[in-house]
Amino acid sequence: MTQRANSAAAGRPVRILAVSKTRPAALIRSLVALGQQAFGENYVQEALGKQAELGDTAIEWHMIGPLQSNKCKDVAEHFDWLQTVDRARLIEPLARFRPAHLPPLNVLVQVNIDDEPSKAGCQPGQIAGLADSIAAHPRLRLRGLMAIPAPAADVGIRRAAFVRMRTCFERLRDSHRDVDTLSIGMSDDFELAITEGATMVRVGSLLFGPRA
């Protein structure tokens, strides 16, 4: 997995996020022992249970599922990254609840790049406003963009979505020079995503094996 990612990156740094939703803490611990540091969870309560069980282990926790407003406090207090900010009303409570003893919460704006009605994420035209609002809060750190493009058997369609995301990312960096993360690509298309500019890929089954 790492070798394939490095080959696609052609020398660029790319981070692998292990998607650990529904996976037991024991499997997460085994990957940590092999050097994996960052893990992504979709459900806050499930993640909090694993964090309690793995409290003796150095893990970087990412929230990658849609965030409900009533879960902002839990995420602000217990996660290192939030990849799914897609509306303005999430921003103030995240900043307010981020504990002073922790570094700022790393935040990505989630983009609905294929305009799917059933999928979370803002429209590309809303990125700038959300990014400005995040960057205005000292307890939050704007890091970049995340997207889950629509599944498509046609590689050209997937590539086009990744290219659109890269364009959005480059525009964001023009106004926020510290932005450094484009989180796109999953187990079945991470190499394509990397060749089109991904700096982080979210991989589950390739690391943990298929779900039972």
Structure explained in plain terms:
By secondary structure, this protein is an alpha/beta fold. It has 9 helices and 8 strands. 38% of the residues lie in helices and 19% in strands. The protein has an 8-stranded parallel beta sheet with strand order 7-6-5-4-3-2-1-8. β5, α6 and β6 (140-147) form a beta-alpha-beta unit. α4 crosses α5. It is globular, with a radius of gyration of 16 Å. 38% of the residues are buried.
CATH C-level class is Alpha Beta
Residues in helices, as a percent range? 25-40%
Class inferred from helices and paired strands = alpha/beta
Mean pLDDT: 95
Helix run count: 9
CATH superfamily: Alanine racemase
**Sheet with the most strands?**
8 strands, parallel
Count of separate structural domains = 1
CATH structural architecture: Alpha-Beta Barrel
**N-to-C span:** 21 Å
Radius of gyration: 16 Å
Order of strands, widest sheet:
7-6-5-4-3-2-1-8
Q: Beta-sheet strand percentage?
A: 15-25%
* Principal-axes shape call: globular
Give me the count of strands.
8
Pattern of helices and strands = HEHEHEHEHEHEHEHEH
